Amino acid sequence: EKGGYDYFMLKEIAEQPRAVADTLLGRIGADGRLTLDEMRISDRELREVDKIIIVACGTSYHAGLIAKYAIEHWAGLPCEVELASEFRYRDPILSRSTLVIAISQSGETMDALMAVRHAREQHAKLLGICNVNGSTLPRECDGVLYTHAGPEIAVASTKAFLTQLVAVYLIALYIAQVRGTKFGDEVFAMIQLLAQMPEKVDEVLGTMEPVRELARSLAGEKSVLFLGRHVGFPVALEGALKLKELAYMHAEGFAAGELKHGPIALIEPGLPVIVVVPPRSRDVLHDKIVSNIQEIRARGARTIVIAEEGDTSVEPYADTLIGVPAVPTLFQPLVTTVPLQVFACELATAKGHDVDQPRNLAKSVTVE
Ligand code: M6R
Question: Is the CB of 135 under 6 A from ligand 1?
Fold first, then answer.
């Protein structure tokens, strides 16, 4: 049942290109436009939306954080992202024209369900992004967009995360298409590029041996930091979460711009710091992070840099360089997350942990 792999997690990491392809299947028409009929929220209703709030937990929350960048950019709508457990106890300002998107792989996470009920009481429109057919979340929402990752057995979410990203890109691009935002041509081009992402994820998977080697060499470390900017920031959070839950190691993700506001004090000689570098095409963003890498390296950190293949500008400052295929900035999490999943999985395995069943964790958290 593990398809020849030692762990479900390894199998699920390997299944990501197919999972991404399946989530795109049937949603991009021959004319290059998106159709999301099964979503059950009409185009008219979508045109009325003036604010989006995303609620989720854990890895699904990280997908939500990435969604914010895509929704603001393409759909041109204000978007807030909330931990479901916090949203539920706040007094959020919602109305009939607010779209609340709940992201949950299992569709059974109690915090997410309670957040949805809280939003319903205030008459918001509710859209679920969910991987499990027949689970509770889709029943509690007005509409649903299923991810087609297939069953995810390992406690640590991998393929579900990548398909959640595809789902949020589809929603952001679809809203842009329906509302006709100023990025019309870009939206059309992005839909075409999204269709190529399964190959890009596959490419990354083919180059993971050095990442595994690196992970084994760091099994004795106490702490690992993760840095990113823009959509690389949630990727850093996700990399840290994976390492915590699988390797039981102190790991933290930071927005690289926050370094000088505190976290840089943590940098000491030999500390492994993994940095996610935006594409070279985003020059200002890119240059900023290159100077962050220089800063931490000057303080003796061991820099592990994930950057676009051929990005020679980071070479002088990277103790280890992990190349990923060039893709548009907003899609970059699809390729930069994969090395972090492989890294955490391999490091935890080197420490002798069962990566499918980490201690103290359950696959779906059905209590608050
Ligand atoms: O089923 P959900 O997506 O609602 O689950 C949310 C979190 O419990 C989940 O993502 C958790 O953080 C994973 N173990 C992360 O790998």
Answer: no
* Closest atom of ligand 1 to CA, residue 365: 8
Q: How many CA atoms lie within 13 A of 173 on its CB side?
A: 27
State if residue 59 touches ligand 1 by the CB under 6 angstroms criterion. yes
Cα–Cα distance list, 331 to 216, 242, 305, 314, 335 (Å): 29, 20, 18, 21, 8
Please choose from 12, 60, 82, 343 the residue to mutate so as to test ligand 1's pocket, defined by most ligand atoms within 8 A of CB: 60
ipTM summary value: 0.98
The HSE-up count of residue 74 (CA atoms within 13 Å, CB side) is: 28
- Any residues with CB less than 8 A from the CB of 357 and at least 6 apart, and which? 155
pTM equals 0.97
User: Ligand 1, atom 14: nearest CA belongs to which residue?
Assistant: 156
d(CA 263, CA 367): 33
Q: What is the pLDDT of residues 186-232, one digit of tens each?
A: 899 999 999 999 999 999 999 999 999 999 999 999 999 999 999 99
Ligand 1 atom closest to the CA of 361, numbered from 1:
14
Q: What is the pLDDT of residues 337-352, one digit of tens each?
A: 999 999 999 999 999 9
- Element containing residue 173 per DSSP (H, E): helix 159-179
CA of 152 to the centre of ligand 1 (A): 11
